[in-house]
Task: structure prediction
Amino acid sequence: MSTSGKKVLYLSPYSPDFSLTEPSFGWLKRFTQCDELLCEDMSILDNDEAQVATITHLHQYVFCITPELVRSWFHKCNYI
Result:
């Protein structure tokens, strides 16, 4: 403890078991891997078209995330 009364707490090493990004990005990744548009060869499209299509599809998936799904990710990571 320092003279100012503050205590330094060190974080534990990274653990995927306690990281909310692991289940959430895994969920998003599973959906994008099944999406035919995102898996097709985008080189035949204009770069701007491909970028807009990709962003549009990702937005659709992100907006599919429900409070129940987020709660399950918190539960899986032992936060609740």
Remarks:
- DSSP finds four helices and no strands in the chain.
- The two ends are 30 Å apart (CA to CA).
- The helical segments are 21-34, 36-39, 47-62, 67-76.
